[in-house]
Amino acid sequence: MPDAQALKLLNVLQGNLQDLEPGWLARIEAASQASGGDTRLQYLSAMACAQRQLWGKARQLLGQAAPRLAEPALRASAWRTLAEAAGRAARRCRGRCPGLERGRAGRSLSTSGQRAIRAISAAGAAAPCPWPSFAG
């Protein structure tokens, strides 16, 4: 399938993720794996996981796909979704991670953002809060 058509199909599927039956997530993941890790299919799978609030899986897939996506709109969407996942993790950590606010104040946004994404990507759902590494 030509790239332009593949991108149109991806956009249509992404715009209708909320309407797809749960079995579609497995189909998208299977297609991604069968294609040898096609970045756009990996992105679509991640967005389907995020739409279903499967944030751990979404972070894992987006962390792999985001840097490799060629289409600027998809890449931006992937990074926005990763940031949303980071924000969700930070809100869960409030009160347990006193270093979070100190860490933000003392570092540039790009440095702390990159560290946050790496920390969250490395943390599992039951892992301890990743934010103490931000403590001064």
Task: Describe how the helices and strands are arranged.
Elements: H1 3-15, H2 23-34, H3 39-51, H4 55-65, H5 72-93, H6 99-106, H7 109-122
Helix pairs in contact: 1-3, 2-3, 3-4, 4-5, 5-7
Can you offer a commentary on this structure?
The chain is an all-alpha fold and 136 residues long. Helix content is 68%, strand content 0%. Helix 1 (3-15) runs parallel beside helix 3 (39-51), helix 2 (23-34) runs antiparallel to helix 3 (39-51) and helix 4 runs antiparallel to helix 5 (72-93). The radius of gyration is 16 Å and the shape is globular. The relative contact order is 0.10.
End-to-end distance, in Å? Answer: 51 Å
Number of extended strands? 0
User: Judging from the principal axes of the Cα atoms, what is the shape?
Assistant: globular
Give me the Rg, rounded. Answer: 16 Å
Q: Which labels suit this protein?
A:
136 residues; mainly alpha; 7 helices; 0% strand; disordered C terminus
Question: Can I get a quick summary?
Answer:
By secondary structure, this protein is mainly α. Helix content is 68%, strand content 0%. The chain contains seven helices and no strands.
